[in-house]
Design brief:
Elements (H helix, E strand, L loop, with lengths): L2 H17 L5 H21 L4 H19 L4 H19 L1 H24 L3 H6 L1 H12 L12 H21 L6 H22 L4 H34 L6 H18 L1 H14 L6 H30 L2
Helix pairs in contact: 2-3, 4-11, 4-13, 5-9, 5-10, 8-9, 8-10, 8-12, 9-10, 10-11, 10-12, 10-13
């Protein structure tokens, strides 16, 4: 981008920051992040320019304001979950839709493949798991696998494994998004084959009312982790007006924040799977848990970011 165009596009914003300084720490932080992004761009492409010196001075002035309005760590924690992460998600909704689309398409493919190939479920889920589940079905407890281990150790193991899967999906975005797409595709195919396995035996509803108690949060988090990975990969593939390195660094920061934001979701999903899924609950109670989890995901990651973004716009 030419320097004159860069200045023209951003001069009004910089003037407003300079002439109308904010005392609100949240807004001041958001302005500082945006300004340092502009400064980094200017330092990359116009290192000896007046605009770079101007932005450096403005950033220093804003930094002093931040230090004067510095909040404690607890307030910063609240700001991250209440404002920073949702606004970041608003910028990533397109990639979130792509991630969900890939996962859904893979799930359908897994279902159709299992329907047309009797060996497909064993290939995807493994002979050990399939044989154990068939044995449990004969005993009248198709999902007895959830009762086979101690609750506390199961909670720790499941939670750590889910976090590992999410961060692996995010890290694989480093391979220009293709690694993330492969992870989404594999998990989607596995879920589709898994659900068809129970459908074929007339147990789809029974299995869904149990599995999706924790699966609603767990599967949603994997899709969101896919969004984080695509954020990293796309920053490398499509740098826009930034240098490829600068775009990549920005993408890693954004993707990592999204991935970190999933940790509480996986902890909750692990708790539900270890302590609640194993229980024999009335269908209404299971339905309430599933719908509540789905409503939270839709609200926090889709509706609330849209609403918050509108209120932040002038």
């Amino acid at each position: 981008m030419r320097e004159a165009l860069f200045v023209k596009r951003n001069s009004d914003k910089w003037r407003d920051m300079e002439q109308n300084p904010s005392r609100d720490p949240d807004e001041l932080t958001a302005r500082f992040v945006e300004l340092t992004d502009d400064l980094s761009y200017a330092q990359t492409f116009y290192p000896d320019s007046n605009v770079t010196r101007y932005l450096n001075g403005l950033a220093a002035q804003m930094h002093r304001g931040l230090m004067q309005n510095r909040r404690d760590d607890r307030s910063r924690f609240v700001t991250f979950w209440k404002y920073e992460l949702p606004l970041l998600f608003r910028q990533s909704h397109r990639l979130l839709a792509i991630s969900a689309g890939i996962f859904l398409a893979a799930g359908i493919l897994g279902w159709v493949s299992a329907a047309h190939d009797n060996t497909f479920v064993q290939l995807i889920l493994g002979d050990g798991y399939v044989n154990m589940t068939l044995e449990n079905i004969k005993k009248g407890d198709p999902l007895g696998v959830y009762n086979s281990r101690d609750q506390a150790s199961m909670f720790i193991q499941i939670t750590l494994n889910n976090i590992y899967v999410a961060f692996r999906t995010f890290v694989f975005g480093l391979f220009a998004s293709f690694g993330t797409i492969a992870m989404l595709f594999y998990n989607g195919v596995m879920l589709g084959a898994f659900q068809y396995f129970f459908y074929e035996r007339g147990l789809l509803l029974d299995s869904a009312l149990k599995i999706w108690i924790h699966g609603t949060l767990e599967i949603s988090a994997i899709i969101i982790a896919g969004c984080a990975g695509l954020t990293v990969g796309n920053s490398l593939l499509f740098p826009g007006t930034y240098s490829r390195l600068e775009s990549f660094k920005r993408g890693i920061r954004r993707g990592l924040k999204i991935a970190i934001g999933l940790v509480p979701i996986f902890i909750t999903a692990g708790f539900l799977e270890s302590f609640i899924t194993r229980l024999t609950l009335p269908p209404v109670v299971s339905g309430i848990i599933i719908l509540t989890s789905a409503a939270f995901i839709i609200w926090y990651f889709i509706l609330y970011p849209i609403s918050l973004n509108r209120t932040k716009q002038p």
